[in-house]
Each structure stands twice: as structure tokens, then as C-alpha cells.
Amino acid sequence: MTLNEVKPGNTVKVVSLTGEGGVKRRIMDMGITKGVSVTVRKIAPLGDPIELTVRGYELSIRKADAGFIEVI
């Protein structure tokens, strides 16, 4: 399952990042790495962006980038 399939209010754990190059680096720079817990706070009406809480920080991520984050 990927992060863009998670419903708002749920907390999941990151299993792996499948993006390459700049996409993977951008995701990792936000603090989203393997093993970290991510809470989906809100999803915009059209699905973009997705608002998250990661390590106590509130972040917004594009739906396309969320598709590269595999979670359980």
C-alpha cells in the first residue's frame, strides 16, 4: 500500500521509498525515511496536497510523491 491510499486520521509506518533521484531525495529531506511513523491529517478535496504529521512536524506532500512511499 502507498501513502496516497491511507485515509485521514490513520497512522502508518514507512516500509520503503520507491522514488529515484531527486524525488527520493526530496522525500528524505522532509524526514520521511524507512521506519518512521506518519499520520495523515487531511487530504485536499481533489487529493492534492496531502497533509501529514511526521516526527512532530506538519508537512504537505504532493499526491504524486506520496505514491512513491510504501507503508504498512
From TrEMBL:
SUPFAM superfamilies: C-terminal domain of transcriptional repressors
Ferrous iron transporter FeoA-like domain segment(s): 1-72
UniProt KW Iron keyword: yes
Gene3D superfamilies listed in its UniProt record: 2.30.30.90
UniProt key word NADP: no
Record InterPro entries: Fe-transptr_FeoA-like, FeoA, FeoA_core_dom, Transcriptional_repressor_C
Keyword vocabulary terms for this entry: Iron
UniProt GO MF annotations: transition metal ion binding
The protein's name in its UniProt record: Ferrous iron transport protein A
Species annotation: Candidatus Gallitreponema excrementavium
Phylogenetic lineage: Bacteria, Pseudomonadati, Spirochaetota, Spirochaetia, Spirochaetales
